[in-house]
Design a protein that fits this description.
This protein has helices at 48-53, 101-111, 127-137, 166-190, 193-201, 203-222, 238-264, 274-300, 303-326, 333-361; strands at 2-3, 10-11, 15-18, 21-24, 27-30, 35-37, 41-43, 62-66, 72-76, 88-92, 116-120, 143-149, 152-157, 377-378. The strands form five sheets. The protein has a four-stranded mixed β-sheet with strand order 10-11-13-12, with helices on one face. Strands 1-9-8 form a three-stranded antiparallel β-sheet, with no helix packed on it. Strands 3-4-5 form a three-stranded antiparallel β-sheet, with no helix packed on it. It is built from ten helices and 14 strands.
Length: 386
């Protein structure tokens, strides 16, 4: 139950008062008058229907939880004594007869917060499935093999979610994918096969951070009371955080693909002019600036910088089109440039998120740009019927 002690006849665009009921954002809220008991105690009665539905009797305890928006949440004591049930997530390996299916189901279970995952088979678990399990758990922090038999593998996750800050994981993922892109562009410029391979190897680290951060985001949606402890200042920002993580993971995927194209380009290297290589390298540097500054704006709330990032992304579009038109007919070159264009577009999404977040949080950077004016609309008092 949520009780908000708002003035009876003051309303905004979302709230209308009809008799003793409030219509607030489409919901009918029953109003109650505050009563003074004794010299300093203020009380309010609870709706009889709610009391019956929750089996509350005189003398029972209820818990009062203050919310950030100024409302109070009243929780029956029996709701605070819920038993924790540990679910076992059982996967039938025999039904995972397509390539990568078992691996993806394990990742899905991990992200959804499953702590106990069991893989079973009616006969013997195939070697391909065992290899899949061993390969994927290396990317899933806290998940390990607890027990293994010929027809069963038990995975246990011993992750403490409060050990990690989601905002720090976003910064860490940004650094990893930024390093990948930097190494890829340097590998292209210097024709360095080793650097390209190092960038590809970093993709596993990017996946590990992405899976962990996504698991924590879904966990904090179930436990919003732990949001601040886990580095989230406002739970309304959680969906945007998920989008940011996906965009960064996508940048890592694009960088890995470009690295593979750089390696494949080696046999055609002598047919490409150094000037063309330099132009692609400079495009890569500009793209990296776009997505790095976009993420910075998310944390600083600088809407002017976010806007300049979006304008820079738009100007890069013309350069990409010009470059693709002028590229020689050599395999992989256009794919590399297209990959860089995709990274710039993903960076633009984060810049948009940065602007929206700054407006939501009333960032100091919106001062002088946006002013919030609150209006209180008065409703004529409804006369009582005789």
């Amino acid at each position: 139950m949520i009780y908000n002690a708002s003035e009876k006849y003051i309303f905004d665009a979302n709230k209308i008062v009809i008799g003793k009921y409030h219509i607030f954002r489409g919901e009918k809220l029953e109003s109650r008058k505050l009563q003074k008991v004794g010299r300093s105690t203020i009380t309010v009665s609870l709706p009889n229907k709610w009391i019956k539905e929750n089996g509350i009797k005189p003398g029972d305890l209820v818990f009062i939880l203050p919310e950030k928006d100024g409302t109070l949440r009243i929780v029956p004591s029996q709701s605070m004594r819920q038993e924790e049930i540990e679910e076992e997530y059982v996967i039938n390996a025999d039904a995972c007869d397509e390539r990568g299916m078992l691996e993806r189901i394990i990742v899905g279970g991990y992200i959804l917060g499953r702590n106990v995952i069991r893989i079973i088979s009616s006969n013997r678990i195939e070697k391909e499935h065992i290899d899949e399990v061993r390969r994927i758990i290396r990317k899933l922090i806290g998940l390990g093999i607890l027990e293994e038999t010929p027809n069963s593998i038990l995975l246990q996750c011993s992750l403490d979610p409060l050990r990690f800050k989601i905002d720090m994981l976003v910064r860490r993922l940004t650094l990893v994918v930024s390093t990948m892109l930097s190494e890829v562009m340097q590998a292209l410029l210097e024709n360095d096969e080793t650097l390209a391979k190092e960038a590809i190897e970093r993709e596993d680290e990017a996946d590990t951070i992405y899976y962990l951060a996504t698991r924590l985001i879904l966990y904090v949606q179930k436990r919003p009371d732990l949001a601040e402890q886990m580095g989230i200042t406002d739970i309304i920002f959680i969906p945007a955080l998920r989008l940011i993580l996906q965009s960064l993971e996508l940048i890592g995927d694009y960088s890995e693909d470009i690295a593979k194209k750089v390696l494949a380009l080696k046999m055609y290297r002598s047919k490409i002019s150094e000037d063309m290589i330099k132009r692609i390298y400079e495009l890569g540097e500009a793209v990296q600036t776009v997505f790095q500054k976009a993420v910075d704006c998310i944390f600083t709330g600088d809407i002017r910088l976010a806007n300049s990032v979006l304008e820079m992304k738009n100007s890069l579009k013309s350069e990409v089109e010009r470059l693709i038109y002028e590229l020689p007919e050599i395999p992989y070159l256009r794919a590399i440039v297209s990959g860089l264009a995709n990274i710039a577009n993903v960076g633009g999404i984060n810049a948009d998120i940065a602007i929206n977040k700054a407006l939501q949080e009333h960032s100091r950077h919106i001062e002088g740009v946006v002013k919030i004016v609150k209006h209180v609309l008065m409703q004529p008092k409804i006369s009582k019927r005789n």
